[in-house]
Amino acid sequence: MLKVFAMEMKDAKLYGGIGAILQLVGPFVPSIGFILALVGLVLVFLAVKTISEKSGDEGIFNNYLKAFIAQILGIIIFVGIIVATIGTAILKGGMGKLANPMEFMSLIGTILLGFIILWIFYTVAGYFKKKSYENSQYTGTDMFKTAGLLFFIGAILIILGIGVLIILIAEILEIVAFFSLPETSESAPVSA
C-alpha cells in the first residue's frame, strides 16, 4: 500500500551539512580536530536518524550504523595487531633483533596483514554506507546515491591510493547532498 507523507528535512539538512563539514575539516585542525570530527560524526548520525525516522525506513540508519561499526572494528583490530606485533618484537629481544632479515620480514608481513584486514573492514563499511545512501528517493536528493557509490568505490580502491581522492570527492558530495535536502519532501514509501 502506498502512503504519501511530508517529511520535515530542515533538521536533517542542518545537522548533516554541518556534521559532514566538521568531519571533513576536523582532521586538519590542530589540537581540537579530533573533537570537531567527533562532533561532526554525531551530527551526521542525528541527520541520518532523522531521515530514517521521518521516512519510516529503519534500513537507512541501520546500514549507516553498520558502516560505522565496521570502520571502528577495523581500526581496533589494526591497532591491536600493530601493538601486539611491536610489543612481541620488544619482548623477544628488543628492536635491535629486527636487524635479522627474517625477524624484520615477519614484522612487515604482520603489519601488512593488519592493513589488509583494515582495508576489508573499510570496504565493508563503504558498502553499508552506500546501502544507507541508496534510499535517496525519500529525500528527493539523488546526490546521496552518488556519494554512497563513491564512498564504496573509494573504499575498494583505497589500497591503491586513488581511493583517498575518491573518498574526498564523496565527502564533498555528502556535504552538498545534505545541504540540498528540501525543507519538506513528498515521498511515497511502500509498506506491506
Description:
The structure is a single chain. The protein has a two-stranded antiparallel ribbon. The chain contains 6 helices and 2 strands; from the N terminus they run βααααααβ. Helices cover 72% and strands 4% of the residues. The protein is elongated and about 65 Å long. The protein is mainly alpha-helical and 192 residues long. The chain has one domain.
Reported for the largest beta sheet, the result is: 2 strands, antiparallel
Q: What is the number of strand segments?
A: 2
Strand order of the largest sheet: 1-2
Q: Spans with pLDDT under 50 lasting ≥5 residues?
A: 1-6, 188-192
SS summary, helix count: 6
Share of residues in strands = under 5%
Ends apart, CA distance between termini: 6 Å
Oligomer: single chain
Radius of gyration based on Cα positions? 20 Å
Estimated structural class:
mainly alpha
Proportion in helices: over 70%
Number of domains: 1
Shape: elongated
* SSE string: EHHHHHHE
Give the averaged pLDDT, no decimals: 85
